[in-house]
TrEMBL record:
Record carries keyword Ribonucleoprotein: no
Domain of life: Bacteria
Key words, A-Z: DNA-binding, Phosphoprotein, Transcription, Transcription regulation
Gene3D superfamilies, A to Z: 3.40.50.2300
Location of the HTH luxR-type domain: 144-215
Residues modified to 4-aspartylphosphate: 52
Keyword Transferase: no
Species: Kibdelosporangium persicum
Name of the protein described by the UniProt record: Two-component system response regulator
InterPro entries: CheY-like_superfamily (IPR011006), NreC/VraR/RcsB-like_REC (IPR058245), Sig_transdc_resp-reg_C-effctor (IPR016032), Sig_transdc_resp-reg_receiver (IPR001789), Tscrpt_reg_LuxR_C (IPR000792), WalR-like (IPR039420)
Response regulatory domain boundaries: 2-122
Cross-referenced SMART domains: HTH_LUXR (SM00421), REC (SM00448)
Length: 219
């Protein structure tokens, strides 16, 4: 796995590089601003980019803008975004885009090495990773609607873990239930949210979007 890191904080940038290299991962370049990052992507064609949301010069959304541009130039690039704060709009947009090869973690998650590496590998392998704290904050502010009120407490637990990008087997492990039970809960979620099978819609992503969209409207 070839990785480029874009982070303006020198200590965090070098710490990330050291951590990943200690795990035998190939950090091919690091960058302190969006221009350096895009140049590194063009030069090295990495598999994954780890990108800070807020970068110079204004420290608002330069990292996101650069990540979008990097994906435009290299569509198969996996991007794991790091943020110091919960950016609700970005989390919702990430899910709306389908979440393929994309992740969003709070920076504090880096200190939990196993979880961080799991998210990194999940994104690199074509999946999605949303920080559990992001999901928790969004759900805490949730305004229930009729469809979501149909869900049982366990079904809401399953849907929250789906929002983190976890697969069925991992959800089963987290909840100490069988894979079959998770499949049943997900079928029930789809039915209660009126999500019929269709080739044009990813029901898993749509279910999560409906769960989180209430929070964006409330905020």
């Amino acid at each position: 796995m070839r990785i480029v890191i874009a982070e303006d904080d020198l200590l965090l940038r070098e710490g990330l590089a050291l951590l990943l290299r200690s795990e035998s991962l190939d950090v091919v370049a690091t960058a302190g601003d969006p221009g350096e990052f895009l140049a590194a992507v063009g030069e090295h064609s990495p598999d994954v980019a780890i990108v800070d949301v807020r970068m110079p010069p204004t420290h608002t959304d330069e990292g996101i803008v650069a990540a979008v541009e990097a994906r435009r130039r290299q569509p198969d690039l996996a991007v794991l975004v790091l943020s110091a704060y919960v950016e609700q709009a970005f989390a919702t947009e990430l899910l709306a885009g389908g979440g393929s090869r994309l992740g969003y973690l709070l920076k504090e998650r880096v200190g939990r090495v196993e979880e961080f590496l799991d998210a990194l590998h999940r994104v690199a392998n074509g999946g999605m990773a949303i920080d559990p704290e992001v999901v928790a904050q969004l759900l805490t502010k949730s305004r229930p609607d009729t469809r979501l009120e149909r869900l049982s407490a366990r079904e809401r637990d399953v849907l929250a873990l789906m929002a983190e990008g976890l697969g069925n087997s991992t959800i089963a492990e987290r909840l100490s239930v069988t894979d079959g039970a998770v499949h049943k809960h997900i079928r029930n979620i789809f039915a209660k949210l009126d999500l019929a099978p269709t080739d044009r819609v990813d029901r898993r992503v749509t279910a999560v979007l409906r769960y989180l969209e209430n929070d964006r409207r409330r905020g």
